[in-house]
Each structure stands twice: as C-alpha cells, then as structure tokens.
Design a protein that fits this description.
elongated, mainly beta, 11 strands, 122 residues
Length: 122
C-alpha cells in the first residue's frame, strides 16, 4: 500500500501565499504522475496542477502564472507553491499520485491524500 500525507494548508488573506507539500511512502517502485486537485463545497474535484516523473507540468487555466508545482523524485514528494491567492482558490486540496507497487505493470493505481483545507479570506 501507499500513503500520501499532505501538509501546509491554512488561512491566508487574498494576495498571500501558501506552500503545500505531499510525501508518498509505502511499497513504491515508481511514481509516474503526481498532482494536486481541489474541491470546493458543492463543486466537483478538479485538477489544479500535475507533474510527470520527467518534470513536465500542466496547470488549470485558473492558476497559471500563480501556482508552481515541483517534485523531488528521490524523496517521493510533491510541492505546490501558491502565490497571489484569491478567495476562489478556497477549497480542500488533495495530493494524488500514480504509483506502481511491484515489477508488474498491472500493479499500478492512483492514490489520494486525506486533503488539506486552504481558505483565502480577509
């Protein structure tokens, strides 16, 4: 099994910054894509940013230029630096990782963290 543990959420004023971190542990052979999703009350969960093992990134249009995703493959961690935060960024943020847990290609699935609350409010 694989565990994802997130940290770094909290309350911040509009225009402020937060840094989210996620560490993966367990029976990991390789992590393909790592990413961050968010879910606001009454809304569907949406992709915020993703990063491949090779460092290729993609972002939701709403966060481009404000958020930066990075990862440390040696430590199995992913970080989301969030700048110029807006009230509409308020949501629970979830870490996600596409992980293979054995030499078998079939032993590959996506795992989720427990979520961390980000609130942007004055």
């Amino acid at each position: 099994q694989v565990q994802l543990v997130e940290s770094g959420g909290g309350l911040v004023q509009p225009g402020g910054s937060l840094r989210l971190s996620c560490a993966a542990s367990g029976s990991i052979v390789i992590i393909y894509v790592m990413g961050w999703y968010r879910q606001a009350p009454g809304e569907q969960r949406e992709l915020v940013a993703g990063i491949s093992s090779g460092g290729n990134t993609n972002y939701a249009d709403s966060v481009k230029g404000r958020f930066t995703i990075s990862r440390d493959n040696a430590k199995n961690t992913v970080t989301l630096q969030m700048n110029s935060l807006k009230p509409e960024d308020t949501a629970v943020y979830y870490c996600n990782a596409d992980v293979r847990t054995s030499a078998l290609v079939a032993d590959r699935k996506r795992y989720w963290g427990q979520g961390t609350q980000v609130t942007v409010s004055s």
